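Hi support team,

I'm filing this because I wasn't sure whether my run with magnesium ion finished correctly. The job status page said complete, but I'd like someone to confirm that the output block is well-formed before I use it downstream. Pasting the exact inputs I used:
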Amino acid sequence: MTSFDAIEIRRPDIASSYLALLAAQPGRPLALFAPRRVGKTHFLDHDLAPAARAAGLLPVYADLWLHKSAPLEALNHALEEALDDLQVPAGRLGKMAQTPVQRVTVLGNSVDLGPTPARRALPEAPALRLDALVTRLARQHKAAVLLMLDEVQTLGEAPDAAGLLASLRAVLHKRRSEVSAVFTGSSQEGLARLMNTAGAPMYQFAQMLDFPVLDDRYLRLLANHFHKVHPTRKLELAALREGFQRIGHKPGLMRDIIKAMSAEGITDVQRGITHYMQSPQQTALWRALLDSVEVFDQAVLTIIARGQAPMSQATLQALAAIPGARPTIAKVRASIEKLKRQGLLTRGATGSRIDDPLLAEFLATQGTPPPAR
Ligand SMILES: Nc1ncnc2c1ncn2[C@@H]1O[C@H](COP(=O)(O)OP(=O)(O)OP(=O)(O)O)[C@@H](O)[C@H]1O
Ligand SMILES: [Mg+2]
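And here is everything the job wrote out:
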């Protein structure tokens, strides 16, 4: 390993187990549950896509967030690009084949490209277009397509969410021998809402799985590289494990923390994390994040971060100190719902909790709520 940044964990075993699950229940997508920044997209890109390709499938990735108001179009766009890639192979000849010229000379040899077969135009309506694209792509590839839909909670937030879900479900069911699908999302809350809203077409449709976070293998590689850089110093695995848990098992963040520790020559992981969190860059990030929500919601977040009951009398009294706020249970409840939609709060075992454990720590160390303004 040449640098901390080059450290990467591959998880082909998890990818094959997902492919086996998909094969065992045609027409039923998998929905991967995981908190933010734990490596969902990385997994789709570096593990699932290669495993799918090795199994003869054609993986197609679409980030639905990119086209929030029209997620089905985002999906169709990804499919169209995949179709283009199949029809126009990369390289010089491929590029030329796109032009109307039918006889071209490649390095002195005459190549007859033949007439391009006439194709019916794809339907305009997004749902029909999706159906047609999936079929066309599977035929062209002569094998099934694996749709990897990232940030799929976007579907639930789009206008006419119910209609979109119904269309997607219908296509995945009808074309089950030609297509399978894996969903992931960064908002656990949004994904849960999308999947579990009683009466929604997606209800009981997808199989929900807990996406596993990285294990000791990753931490060992980080420790090994640290030791290579500082031959006289060592990071303890147990301490790394504890630290990784403290920051919510986010590999990119862990790597940044270890890099900072390496630069400063720190080996105490807990101290390294605290140090990193208190750095001006990090606190500025938290501040900016908090400034993007209303003062009342900030106070509700702080109360939850401190483990205080958000609906209690004491909380309402504390919230009453915010100028202009007339706190009621209903207002607190509405604020909690809003914070969940924004991905700042998530459902915990005993009520709502802050999604990011480091933000929770930061909030808990701030001044008494409500924050002064
Ligand atoms: N298997 C891995 N090995 C090494 N680093 C990883 C691995 N998976 C993820 N990372 C690192 O963790 C960071 C977050 O990964 P990624 O963007 O895939 O997470 P995510 O769960 O999709 O996040 P979000 O919720 O923001 O969509 C990236 O910097 C990535 O490099
Ligand atoms: Mg992602």
